[in-house]
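Supplementary Note 3. Input sequence used for the single-chain structure prediction.
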Amino acid sequence: MPTWKIESSAKVPSDQKIKEKVLKGWFDFKEAPDRIKDDKETVLTVVGKRGSLLKHASSRLKNDLDVVRKAMNQDVESFQYADPSIKNNKSLVLSAFRGHIPFQLIPEAMRNDKDVILAAIKSSSSNLAFVPEEYRNNRELVLKALEKDGKAIYVIPEGFRNEKAFLMASFLYDNFLSFTCVPNHLVKDKEIVLVAVSVRFALNLQYVGDEFQDDEEVVLESVKHNGLSLQYASKRLQGDPIIVEEAMKENPFAFKFASVKLQGNEEFIKRTIPTSHNVSCHYLQFVSKDLLKKKEFVLSIITRYPFIFQYVSEKLQDDEEVVLEALEWQATREEWLENKSSLLEYASDRILNNREFLLDNYEVTKFGDTFIQDGQISLELNLLVWHEDDFDENDDTV
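The predicted structure, written as discrete structure tokens, is reproduced below.
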């Protein structure tokens, strides 16, 4: 409860003090005296910070266009707290739909106005469910709703939902729309299927049935928009190099769903490795175990993608030549040096305890000193680094 309601009359703060406390948020506006709630300057400031506080303004100011607009600019749904008489102001209602105000909040008198209905549908396709029936059956308006949000297909009249044109529009304008909304008589329509599988985030290939999951054109269209949809392709097409490569262009991790044969295809893997080091190649963890044991293959990859070192066989993580190839590339990458990360972390225990190897190659092993298990070796390695730094500094002063 505000202080002014419990203090003696001799200590009741002035209106100015009350305003200051309200504006600073020290007291809840809804507990302020009525004369403060009827002060336009104060209320404008208050609703400008939190539009819903219009609910506690005086009746006079709830009917003030300036105050109501100010509140709506901060929170469009504060429109519901405006005086009923001002809610019939068409420009105010139209401005309300610049937000996402539910159609049910506008007064009955405005619900048959075509401009208002268009604004409502443009604001949110879900409003289509609440507009008068004559407008819900208007093809032009329904298409506008679908262009705004394909999920409007769930609220439009059933007759439209069964029409191919409306379904096509739905899939074209919604990146999440599920193929499950397609009526039975259209689920085998290839044109519908093609546009449905192009919906990026719905992974609709999983719903289209075996026939289309084994259709090259359908699967290719699907993986172009979401490479991970490869997981729902037929086994035959998961082994198709063209389709898998296209899927990997969209998302390299699609390689996880390639056939076992492709995951072990040395030529395919080398060809599809991105040339840019900025592209994640962690998908190479799905390379067949047999290839990850093959030293010749690993060495051919590691200079382009040294991170494969963390996935190679334990035998190769114990191979000094392989370890050096990974570390030498990494030593040239500033982002790894700044993060103080090192692929030495994945080397075998023998390597991490091999004093001769670590010290002889300190220029590349020094970045992984935190992973060296022997404290004495780690100290010697750091001494070499400090000596090198001192030498460089002295050389610069000559």
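Residues 1-10, 391-398 have pLDDT under 50 and may be disordered. Residues 1-87 form one domain.
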